[in-house]
Design brief:
By secondary structure, the protein is mainly alpha-helical. It folds into two domains: 126 residues, no CATH class; 45 residues. It is built from ten helices and no strands. The longest helix is centred in the middle third of the chain and has 53 residues. The radius of gyration is 43 Å and the shape is rod-shaped. The N and C termini lie far apart (125 Å).
Length: 243
C-alpha cells in the first residue's frame, strides 16, 4: 500500500478536499475517536493512503519510500491524536496549492514541516475566530446594556408613578399626570419642568404609614374626652342609662 501508486485513492482524496475548510476539518472526527471506532491499524493505513497520494502528486526526483511513508503515517497517528484526518488532507492540499517549492526533493522532514506549519496556521485561525465571536458578543452585550440603560429610567419612572386605587387622591394625581403629559406635548413646559412636576406627583403618591406613632399624653386625654362626650350624647339620645 505504501509502495504502490494508487490513482483511485488520489482521485477520492481530491474529491474529498474540494471546498474543505479549516473549520470543517476542525469539526471532523478526531484521530483518537477513529482509533476507538475502527482500530489504530486502520487509521494508520488511511494515513498511508493519504500520504502516498500526496507523494505521488509532487513531481520531484527524490521522494519518501514505502518505509518512510509508513513511519510518517504512524508518527502522525501518534502525534495529532486530537486532530482529524481532514486536517492532514487539508495540510497537504495547501502545500500543493499554495506554491510550495520542493527543489526537486521531498523528504519526511519536509512533510513534517508542512503539517506542523498547517497546525500553526490552524491554531491562529481558530483563535482569531474565537476573538471575533467574543468581540461580537461583547458588542451585542454593549448594545443590549445601552438599550436597557435607556429604558430603565423610563421603566422605573412608570413604576414609581403607578397610583394605587386605595390612595385618597388617586383620581386627582392621575389627572395631574395627564395634564403634565399634555402640556409637554404642546410645548407649554420644558422637559426639565415636566420631570420636576412628575417628581412632585411621585412624592405625593408615596404614603408613609407610622404604625409606631403614639399621641402625647395631652392629646390622648383630648381623644378620650371626645370619645366620652360622643358616648354620652349617643346614650342621651336613645335613653340609655349607664349602670
Amino acid at each position: 500500500m505504501a509502495s504502490t501508486p494508487n490513482p483511485h485513492a488520489r482521485l477520492a482524496l481530491a474529491e474529498l478536499s474540494v471546498g474543505l475548510t479549516v473549520a470543517q476539518a476542525a469539526a471532523a472526527p478526531k484521530l483518537f475517536q477513529l482509533k476507538k471506532q475502527v482500530g489504530e491499524d486502520v487509521v494508520v493505513k488511511l494515513l498511508v493512503i493519504i500520504l502516498r497520494a500526496f507523494v505521488d502528486s509532487v513531481r520531484v526526483a527524490e521522494k519518501p519510500d514505502a518505509a518512510d511513508i509508513l513511519e510518517l503515517a504512524d508518527t502522525l497517528a501518534q502525534t495529532y491524536t486530537h486532530d482529524s484526518v481532514k486536517d492532514i488532507i487539508l495540510a497537504l492540499k495547501e502545500a500543493r496549492t499554495n506554491g510550495t517549492r520542493f527543489f526537486n526533493a521531498l523528504d519526511p522532514a519536509r512533510v513534517y514541516e508542512i503539517i506542523r506549519d498547517y497546525f500553526t496556521r490552524k491554531a491562529q485561525s481558530l483563535e482569531n475566530q474565537h476573538l471575533d465571536r467574543k468581540a461580537q458578543a461583547i458588542s451585542q452585550e454593549s448594545v443590549a446594556l445601552h438599550q436597557l440603560q435607556q429604558a430603565a429610567p423610563r421603566l422605573v419612572q412608570s413604576v414609581a408613578l403607578m397610583i394605587p386605587d386605595s390612595h385618597p387622591n388617586a383620581q386627582h394625581l392621575r389627572d395631574k399626570l395627564t395634564l403634565i403629559k399634555q402640556k409637554y406635548r404642546r410645548g407649554l413646559v420644558s422637559m426639565a419642568q415636566a420631570e420636576q412636576q412628575r417628581y412632585e406627583v411621585q412624592q405625593a403618591i408615596q404614603r408613609h404609614p407610622r404604625p409606631d406613632w403614639q399621641p402625647s399624653e395631652a392629646a390622648q386625654q383630648q381623644i378620650t374626652r371626645r370619645h366620652q362626650q360622643a358616648t354620652r350624647r349617643f346614650a342621651e339620645k336613645w335613653g340609655i342609662v349607664n349602670t
